[in-house]
Design a protein that fits this description.
Layout lengths: L1 H18 L4 H23 L11 H21 L4 H8 L2 H11 L7 H18 L9 H20 L9 H21 L9 H25 L4 H4 L5 H13 L6 H19 L6
Length: about 280
């Protein structure tokens, strides 16, 4: 799980390197092309069919749309806000999932669960620190929160997926959706800069990191002791903070570290009290 989060943080860092030069459409299209190629290779190695009939169900289409929205909003956020801030806000997704389950009545109302959500949101507030003289770009914060909402909705939509859905086929379909959407958006816009070879190399590495992270995550989730494995998902916050300091010389304040700790603690509590288990 720790290695998977490191791969995901590396993907975010590489996308952020490109986000200052390329548009969201360019990044989605170029990274998507590499991701589709990797997905096809995995399916061929596993000797699976490209798509089964179960992949044509509305629940799968909804999952693809939510993944696209999450990818687009995350890419937008990474171009505007520090890496650590984006990672912290997107990791609020488990809290939003819990809050939605409470509001929809999928899990009983309990003051401890409400306190968990409140603590996590307080941590997000400390990370953003709107009272600072130079807070993160408001649009970057909004985009990161939009990504968290999309991720929470994606996790909730997973409840509707049939257990017969192949993870490899789903990954291929999601990557293809993002790729085609990126190409379409690119065709309707006029990017300021062309994609250079360096950008393509970074995005190829980003696609490899995301794919490797997904494979490692699946392996981690097959552990017989998920109670110990799942909290390690929040090591993404540490990975992202370290990369932000090393690459962009970001200097998290004491309030930022406190906010990260609150988000991680609340997220672990939310994962230990999943909506399905109530």
């Amino acid at each position: 799980m720790v290695a998977a989060m490191g791969c995901w943080a590396g993907n975010d860092a590489l996308v952020k390197l490109c986000a200052h030069d390329l548009s969201v459409a360019q990044i989605l299209a170029v990274r998507g092309s590499f991701a589709v190629a990797l997905s096809l290779a995995l399916i061929m190695l596993a000797r699976e069919r490209l798509l089964d009939s179960v992949m044509l169900r509305p629940a799968v289409a909804l999952r693809c749309v939510l993944e696209l929205a999450a990818a687009a909003s995350a890419t937008w956020a990474l171009g505007l806000a520090p890496l650590g801030v984006v990672a912290a806000l997107t990791m609020a997704a488990p809290l939003l999932t819990l809050l939605t389950a409470l509001l929809l009545g999928w899990t009983p109302w309990q003051w401890l669960r409400l306190l968990t959500v409140a603590i996590g949101l307080a941590g997000a507030w400390l990370v953003v620190q709107p009272w600072r003289s130079e807070p993160p770009a408001p649009l970057g914060v909004v985009a990161a929160l939009a990504c968290a909402i999309c991720l929470a909705a994606r996790d909730l939509s997973t409840r509707r997926l049939s257990p017969t859905v192949s993870p490899r086929q789903l990954t291929l379909l999601v990557n293809a959706t993002v790729w085609v959407a990126g190409l379409a958006l690119w065709g309707f816009t006029t990017p300021e800069r062309p994609v250079q070879l360096q950008h393509a190399a970074w995005l190829a590495a980003a696609a490899l990191g995301a794919t490797t992270g997904n494979l490692l995550l699946v392996k981690a989730l097959r552990s017989p002791d998920l109670g110990r494995v799942m909290p390690l998902r929040f090591t993404l916050l540490l990975w992202s903070s370290l990369l932000g300091m090393l690459v962009w010389h970001e200097q998290p304040s004491a309030a930022t570290w406190a906010g990260l700790a609150l988000i991680a603690a609340a997220g672990v509590a939310a994962l230990r009290r999943p909506p399905d288990s109530a």
